[in-house]
Amino acid sequence: MNIIIKQIELIQRMDQLIRLQATGTPDYLATKLGISKTKLYRLINIMKELNAPIAYDISVQSFIYAEVVGFKFGFYTTDQKSNELNPFVG
Description:
Blueprint: H1 2-19, H2 26-33, H3 37-49, E1 54-57, E2 62-65, H4 78-85
Antiparallel strand pairs: 1-2
């Protein structure tokens, strides 16, 4: 079970870095995450299978999302979900 949780945490971290366009090169990102380049590409493929529109932008040297998407994993109450969908609710 810990393996699944660690993979989800890696995907969440990658998602954050992709949104910030701060992944750097694949070698740099793999080093930053403490994983091999092979494992990095496996995780990217998993994200793509989950419909993440990931691309690599040479001009900013970062992975990016080709379109606006959201990623959320975890449990939440109905009230939290409705607040998260409204950006104007604290």
